[in-house]
Amino acid sequence: MLEIRPNCEHCGKDLPYNSVEAMICSFECTYCKNCATKVFNNICPSCGGGFEKRPVRPSEKLGKYPASEKRVFNPKDLEKFEGLRQKYKNIPSEKR
Prior knowledge:
Blueprint (H helix, E strand, L loop, with lengths): L21 E3 L5 E3 H7 L12 E2 L24 H11 L8
């Protein structure tokens, strides 16, 4: 089950359970839409995978399956990320 993390790992923007701005990779690294698409060009800086829109957990399920309250804030070194970006920039995420 998804943790539904509450913030962007890079910029710290709040991403509540019902945010339409939340993007995740297959390991559930969580970023806001701006960071995922404009800063990281749809390349997860942790695993090299692509991003997808995080699903919204229905509010009536939050009692039994609460969203995480643990904030993960780990801004990425953009100079270090550049090598990964160059490696994957022309390879679609499904072929990486």
